[in-house]
Amino acid sequence: MSAATTARDRARVEITRTIQDTARRHLGEVGPAALSLRAIAREVGMVSSAVYRYFPSRDELLTALITEAYDELGAALEVADAAVPADDVAARLRAVCLALRAWSVAHPHEYALLYGSPVPGYAAPDTTTPAAGRVTGVLMTLAEASERAGHVMAPTVPADPSERDALGGIRALLPLEVSDERLVRWLMAWALLFGHLSLELFGHMHRGILDYDRHFRQVVEQLVRDLGLTGDDA
Q1: 49 to each of 13, 122, 181, 206, how far by Cα in Å?
Q2: Would the CA dihedral through 98, 100, 102, 104 be positive or negative?
Q3: Pick from 66, 76, 70: nearest CA to 27
């Protein structure tokens, strides 16, 4: 590879990074639906036709932002999980949940892009699935660890005979040795966590909850109990 080629590749990476950083800033100003390649081009000092050489459409830029955000969140959860002894599933869940909230609070606009209202006219392509799966995968890995440890969950509604078919999608994405009942309960936990975060970040608990941090920790402790992980407590 020639020095000129290396320099061009380096310049392309740097310009792509600048465009994405600017786009992330615009997310907080105008929201994803109003994201404009022309406006981004003006800010970075490029003509719009030049930006299109890096991102041929707004949708491709959105896809890049979504993938990046999922990867960042997934990495934050993986690091938090890895910092706790593997046999202490309760501590791992606490660490992962707190890391989830910390990232979400620090990146509210990226959180809204991932878990807020769909962007009109945009459908995320399958290329975003691996990055999105990192987030769900951390929680499902904990579910599998809980299964191996034999944790006894709080009483649960018996799985419908057709439940395995209903869970076929997530089982295809994340092959896990987890019973239907446990998988459903951990999916419920996943939904509860993101539900509370969405209520907080989108302002739906304003004045109702006076200490979001304390409230979220209480939610996590209830999940630890409901999922039968209290035996892991030190």
Answers
A1: 18, 22, 53, 43
A2: negative
A3: 66
- Longest Cα separation, the chain: 66
Q: How far apart are CA 13 and CA 179, in angstroms?
A: 45
Distance CA 189, CA 31 (A): 28
With tokens 């830029």, the residue in question is: 61
Given a contact cutoff of 8 angstroms between Cβ atoms, the answer to whether 58 and 37 are in contact is yes
Q: pLDDT digit of tens for each residue in the chain (234 aa)?
A: 566 567 777 888 999 999 999 999 999 999 999 999 999 999 999 888 889 999 999 999 999 999 999 999 999 999 999 999 999 999 999 999 999 999 999 999 999 999 999 999 999 999 999 999 999 999 999 999 999 999 998 877 776 777 667 777 777 776 778 888 888 888 889 999 999 999 999 999 888 888 999 999 999 999 999 999 986 544
* CA-closest candidate to residue 62, choices 133, 6, 110: 110
Domains and CATH numbers, the chain: 1-56 (1.10.10), 65-232 (1.10.357.10)
| Element (DSSP H or E) covering residue 169 | helix 168-173
